[in-house]
Amino acid sequence: MNIVKEKAQQVMKKAIELAPDKWMPGGRPDPLGESREGYIGMPVSRIDGPDKVAGEARFAAEFALEHMAYAALVYSTVAKGSIATLDTQAAEAAPGVVLVMTHKNAPPMQPMPLFMSAQKAAAGEKVAVLQDDQVHYNGQPIALVLAETQEQADHARSLIHVTYLTDAAVTALATAMEQGTEPGAFMGQPLKKEVGDAEGKLAQAAFKTDAVYRTPRQNHNAIELHAVTVAWEDGILRVHDATQAVAHTAWSLAQVFGLQEAQVRVSSPFVGGGFGGKTLWRHQVLAAAASKLAKRPVRLMLSREGVYRVVGGRALTEQRVAIGARADGMFEAMVHTGATTMSRNNDFPEPFILATQCMYGAESFKLDVETVRMDMLANTFMRAPGEAPGTFALECAVDELAERLDIDPIELRIRNEPAKDPLEGTPFSSRHLVAAWRMGAERFGWDARQRKPRMRQEGEWLIGLGCAAATYPYHRMPGGAARITLRRDGSAHVAFAAHEMGMGTSTTHAMVAAERLGLALEQVTVAYGDSTLPGMILAGGSQQTASVGHAVIAAQRALVTALLKLSGKESPLHGLKPDSVAARDGGLCKIDEPGRFESYAALLERAGREEISAEGEAPPPFEYMHWSMHSYGAIFCEARVNVVTGEPRVTRLLGAYDCGRVVNPKTATSQFRGGMIMGMGMALMEETNFDERNGRVMNPSLAEYHVPVHLDVPEIEVIWTDIADPHAPMGARGIGEIGITGTGAAVVNALYNACGKRVRDLPATLDKLVE
Fold first, then answer.
1. Residue in 261, 610, 737, 771 annotated catalytic
2. Is position 605 annotated as part of the catalytic site?
């Protein structure tokens, strides 16, 4: 690590020289005017770890309510049409059955609002649930059985008999393409951008690559199954949910049932993985409707198959990437176009051009995402939507061009490093990707790579090295708010409506609050995962830490203001302004006169107060207005291919990241590694098998849908520059999703270096590698 630190320090020193007014002593930026040492940057274990290990952390399906009934769903077996007959008599007569709910007896419900409608919704489909006999896709829930036990509900479900009147459905990609495409848009922005004449420059380029890359459908497989426990109490809908959007889910359910938002309370204290899939789907609505009908609490936990039927995943893509370059490797043309699929009931195209917009400098660009409609379950966000499949195509194409130019792949990337945002022309807030490339290459031993494939072999195994760049944009969504309560005993309680999906939210923001308040970490407690708490923050887009962190800082500032108002003439702090004080040792002091100090306990005691609270709202995310803000990474892979069977294996992975300041290195390392494992799975095995004859997912279980297991995962090393971004709260950019970006391409590029077989159609299974 000495080499890594030395490289990072050199880059940091240069950054300070270029903009000394933006940096605080020690080389860390301080965009919010505070400059203290503390917990930020320390490797801290998760404070909720002991509860999870002891089994005391309760997840959505572990809330036991009195007189609770259990639900099971019935799924359609046709892609489009209507229900002709629905025989529920045998199910209703089965032991323990409380009710069978169908479109004939379901309570009135409004359609689910689409994601981010009115900036509040968190749904994947814009259809009404169980309000008519229409079938929109194969696997749609068409009935719910409620029983005294889960086993009784599952048995009764098997007794329901359904017949259908089918309509012509579009379930094949070729058919959908024949019916025409429509322009894609992501979060209200068109997915079509052109600069100059890229096709013309491509045709005239001395060196070029032009190929089509394909990525398959992929399904969500969070370790915790989607589940919900609901009850109606005195007109209030109480929901224990596995969600990464408590406030958004509360608002959305209120829209569905015609309630005020305050009449819905959603809690989600622990979530066993989300990755974009744990928003509002039909199962929460069905459970709430059944509870209303039965007048008793209901638990609905989807089976693994049920997740595949109800919860959307990543859509397939067909991407053309063409790059034209001069003999010196400088890019003249960058073309990244193609198509992706959507259902008829949502508007979320896989935005695979996002990374290409900021990754490399070129004289001209042509970027375009077209969409086609199919009769299928709505697709949705899945870790790094757009960037994950997009970087696979882009970074494989860069490697192919490097081979044609006979230039080292890393050197080619560095030569085309842009000085500013390639499309918008805005300056980068902080970009040290070259430093990441240099430190990663040295650490990984890149100089041992053979330029030509099939040059290194051990026994039956051909060995190769590959690399790829990674990027994910910095996001900070509006709605961040937090409340801090300071007690006379010197402890503090922090509350915000955010989420713990395994990434260490409570730990990270206990660290932030402790550092800002000058308290010991054990003096800070954190409440989160409840829609009644301040804020409206989504755990998505790698933005929760920045959004909550800025809100906690705002709350701390409001608290300091309130405390100074309490200080009487006898207080050493009397007459001081918030900007002139700092927190330390459980109290406040004058910045330039540390002796003028008073503890929180003394302040509150003199004022006769047991506690004091203050709320703060994060300001609008103005960071985007003048800067191009992204996290970056350089991914390195060593892979093997068996010359007899074609079997691929990844034997080493290294990620060198430039993501601003790392708040908690211990939890951050876990996040990076988890993303890289997911990227490796994307490269080698993940694929939803979709029957284009009838629109049914054919491998809806972890026995058939393959993800990496322990024996698949190699040694993974993670390093980072730790150079703070002067324009981001706490100097930190997001890390939750960048781990998956670039990793798929690095694996595939390593496989090519090993055996000489180019794989442009994921996953890279042995049949595509065998001679």
1. 737
2. no
